[in-house]
Design a protein that fits this description.
By secondary structure, the protein is an alpha/beta fold. The protein is 40% helix and 28% strand. The chain has a 9-stranded mixed sheet with strand order 3-2-4-5-1-8-9-10-11, sandwiched between helices. Strands 6-7 form a two-stranded antiparallel sheet. A hairpin with a 5-residue loop joins strand 8 and strand 9.
Length: 237
């Protein structure tokens, strides 16, 4: 157990170091690999790192409801940290997930508007999952490339500029699809996100095992970890 705890501290410390070079994290993986759980694990530990209890987070429920139960399980023996996290993650929309691509655009526009009063010491924005409504809308349009360009120009790029200007870390959660040309899974609309310099975290299942693998790529470097999804969230093995 002590070894696992040291691994987890080293992992969060490594993520903090990477975030000093790049403010965007992209998390992708198949269903059941724990994309949302990992995002919650990262944000919870980053917000309470060193018990500084200063920073805050906005969590945008683009397609998935915020995992309150999982948060409580993850920090159930760290009650001071749990209370701080619960009080300093601000969920948008508050009581449901986003209903359409237009609503997502409106929420992002409001968020980055200079007149918007942001949570104190806002340091993290999570979008779970950013391409869900884009994927649905593309199924009902004939002008695919125009829609992708508008999404980039009206939502993604302005949000990235805002995060750079305000020194905010942006965590984007993605669904994936199998790409037969590359013979591997890739985030939906990966060509859109490949325009962005970011920290890539890709999650995979391991055949016939409860273990999962996590590959982190940034610049020309790569790291690989194994983990399991446990009652209390992500456990490094």
């Amino acid at each position: 157990m002590k070894s696992n705890m040291l691994q987890e501290v080293d992992f969060i410390s490594g993520i903090r170091k990477l975030l000093s070079y790049n403010n965007i994290i992209s998390i992708s993986g198949e269903s059941g690999t724990g994309k949302t759980t990992l995002s919650l694990y990262l944000v919870g530990n980053l917000l309470t790192w060193g018990k500084s209890f200063i920073e805050s987070c906005i969590w945008i429920q683009a397609s998935e409801l915020f995992p309150n139960k999982r948060l409580s399980q993850m920090f159930e023996i760290y009650l001071e940290e749990l209370e701080y996290i619960q009080n300093n993650i601000f969920i948008q929309p508050a009581k449901r997930s986003i209903l359409s691509l237009e609503e997502q655009k409106s929420i992002i526009e409001t968020l980055i508007n200079p007149s918007t009063i942001l949570p104190p010491s806002l340091k993290y924005i999570v979008i779970d999952n950013i391409s869900h409504h884009l994927r649905y809308t593309l199924q009902h349009t004939t002008n695919r490339y125009s829609l992708l360009d508008r999404f980039y120009d009206e939502q993604l790029f302005p949000l990235i500029l805002f995060c750079i200007r305000e020194h905010i870390h942006l965590i984007l959660i993605h669904e994936v699809t199998y790409n037969p040309t590359l013979d591997r899974t890739k985030p939906f609309f990966y060509s859109l996100y490949d325009r962005i310099e970011k920290i890539d975290i890709v999650l995979h299942k391991v055949f016939n095992s409860e273990k999962r693998t996590m590959k982190i790529s940034h610049d020309q470097s790569q790291w690989k970890f194994q983990y399991i999804l446990a009652h209390n969230g992500i456990v490094m093995v």
